[in-house]
Amino acid sequence: MTDLRTAVIYYSATGSVYAMAQAAAKAAEHAGSEVRLRKVRELAPEQAIAGNEGWAAHAAQTQDVPEATLDDLEWADLLVVGAPTRFGLPAAQLKQFLDTTGPLWGEGKLVNKAATSFTSAATAHGGQETTITALNNTFYHWGCLIVPPGYADPIQFQAGNPYGSSHTSNNGTTPPGQVELDAVAFQARRAVQVAQALKTGLAAA
Q: What residue range is the signal peptide (predicted)?
């Protein structure tokens, strides 16, 4: 074990991003990090959720996953953040949580953390890359060091997204496959390695 602490924070409506978050959390843990897996608060009305079978089933499946708090961000050395794409931007539920981080930002408590992001969209070219870069815009403001997967592992030549892991759900009919799960696992392992080097280097400086 290292002394690294990782917060995997996500929003998922029907399960695609949740599956990727689970893979990221497991990989980070196997890489030696202590991990918190946290979902953000749901904003949609119960009636809307109940009217979508997949959404309702996923809400019931993950009812015991703890909700993210500002303490999770402050606690972590590494932030792994995932959200579905909504019109090329992160889903409102995740964005709303990010919008509550002003107090931590104002006190400089997010500076020099490592951060990386991932997403899922309903269609190919549905905004995967713009969602990841939009998430990264928040990390710039926080003063984080962004860790992209790049093409630093053979899995990336199959997954094909150097910005961050992504998945195409084909309008919710296709869950993440082994390539997507292996890609986000690699991304998490790489982020743990970089975050640990960053933490060690800062402590020695």
A: none
8 Å CB contact between 76 and 5: yes
Per-residue pLDDT of the chain (205 residues; tens, 9 = 90+): 579 999 999 999 999 999 999 999 999 999 999 999 999 999 988 889 998 888 899 999 999 999 999 999 999 999 999 999 999 999 999 999 999 999 999 999 999 999 999 999 999 999 999 999 999 999 999 999 999 999 999 999 999 999 999 999 998 889 999 999 999 999 999 999 999 999 999 999 8
Output the CATH code of domain 5-204. Answer: 3.40.50.360
Tally: H helices and E strands in the chain: 9, 7
Distance CA 16, CA 24 (A): 13
Domain boundaries, the chain: 5-204
CA distances to 30, 40, 90, 102 from 63, rounded to whole Å, are: 25, 12, 22, 27
